[in-house]
């Protein structure tokens, strides 16, 4: 790719951002190196095809300066659109979504000379999921009883479905087609609640630490089970086994213990279970409202964690009596950013995303290994999404 290509000096069409309440997600296109056989640029009919891959990175929103540095050093400089003093010559436009596209617009303009071309958050989420389901094989999977099973997506029988995006808060969107959707519900008890309460209750400093703790915990220490109330037996008449949770954190009522008397790992486990269970149940109720059988769960709260996925799946399975299916997505946390990225294709004189090489995928860490990203002065958390091989049409 010619870095001095004028398109790239007015629009960074290979970068999209989703700036949420907790995390900033970046999707960017990294062209294959010139020395790479399949990294060639094909020019014909006034259209050049650049092969490469979509890469993913995330930053905590509270550490937005790291994100600005990453874009400055790894994306703007790489694209040849930046002065050495760190500011851009021309006004650069970048697709951005999420609340931060509004909140931080002035900051990006001032620090990087980037102007946000804003995309609606719900619209971006839906575009992102539809893109993944239609173009990336082995994207969606079910998780039940410790078994992960990839779901074959029938393009002619994809809609309607329920999208449950678990970010800081939770949005539930009924999707009826490309660009046809309605946000039918939501709950403020989401990933932010898990992390916020978790920090207060366990003194954990980070999400990863809280997850790690929860691995080692036992929720039965704090949760009040049906068996605790029923003297060890099931309440089979209404379908509740003795091990079902009757009341999350309910044992704390009568244990006579202070917070310090509980193991933080047990608290973390109960919290994770409570939030996941509740979201699974609300999702099911909304699916029931509209007769939806398929529920896709996204958002960074899930993080591919088995316990979370299992809890959500069991909740959906239990309440729907096996009628509805919970499904998860490999690029769960990047739905909005991907949707914003694909929206470049709606414009003339911009890019069209043409996925190819569907079966070839590399770990995103690879992105920092190749020639184009040899000098990465700022570390991003790039290990959460797998890169997607694709080509971009520059029309
Ligand atoms: N490394 C991490 N740091 C902080 N939170 C994380 C991390 N990894 C996963 N999470 C979880 O993911 C949630 C954020 O998910 P996501 O990025 O999808 O939402 P968001 O866009 O920030 O929020 P919203 O859409 O509500 O504005 C956090 O609240 C937390 O529960
Ligand atoms: C406010 C948003 C959409 C921001 O991403 C999200 O955090 C959310 O859906 N919160 C839940 C709000 C509610 O429906 O109660």
Run of helices and strands: HEEEEHEHHEHEEEEEHHEHEHEHEHEEE
Secondary-structure arrangement, i.e. CATH architecture of the largest domain: 2-Layer Sandwich
Rough outline: globular
For this structure, the CATH topology of the largest domain is: Nucleotidyltransferase, domain 5
Largest sheet, in brief, is: 9 strands, mixed
Structural class: alpha+beta
Q: What Rg is obtained from the alpha carbons, in whole angstroms?
A: 23 Å
Number of strands: 18
Q: Which molecules are bound besides the chains?
A: adenosine-5'-triphosphate, pantothenoic acid
Q: Which residues form runs of ≥5 with pLDDT under 50?
A: 1-11, 34-44, 347-352, 354-384
Rounded mean pLDDT is 83
Number of continuous helical runs: 11
The first-level CATH class of the largest domain is given as Alpha Beta
* DSSP strand content: 25-35%
Helix content: 25-40%
- Compute the separation of the termini in Å: 14 Å
Q: Any idea what the CATH superfamily of the largest domain is called?
A: ATPase, nucleotide binding domain
